[in-house]
Amino acid sequence: ICHYLATGRRVLVTSKGEPALEVLRQKLPAGVRELCVSLGSADASSFRRLEAAVENLADNVAAAQPSALASARTACSSAFSRGRTHAGSGADAASDAGIRLRLSLPARH
Predict the structure, then answer these.
(1) CA 95 to chain centre
(2) Which helix (H) or strand (E) holds 11?
(3) What is the predicted pLDDT for the residue at 94?
(4) Which of 17, 39, 16, 35 is closest to 25 using CA atoms?
(5) Which helix (H) or strand (E) holds 13?
(6) 3-state DSSP call for residue 12?
(7) HEC states along 42-74?
(8) What pLDDT is attached to residue 84?
């Protein structure tokens, strides 16, 4: 999931139940986990998570320095390019857990 996000793809994870999504969410790195929201339930904790994700994004954008972001992007892009030869298959494990992943490529102009 993190690899696809880092390479500009969108990821939609679906499941029949909230518990499976929560298990997957807990396995994500903290920086990514903060941006994950569940739209399947309408309880107070889901709304708090959505609000926290939006606040986190707003804070990151407000504190961002374009030049530092550009150099970080270049460094990360190089690292990902070197790491593409090692592609693990987490899709099989996710499928076994009853979780489906949907990936989409960003629009190219």
Answers:
(1) 18
(2) strand 10-15
(3) 46
(4) 35
(5) strand 10-15
(6) strand
(7) CCHHHHHHHHHHHHHHHHHHHHCCHHHHHHHHH
(8) 57
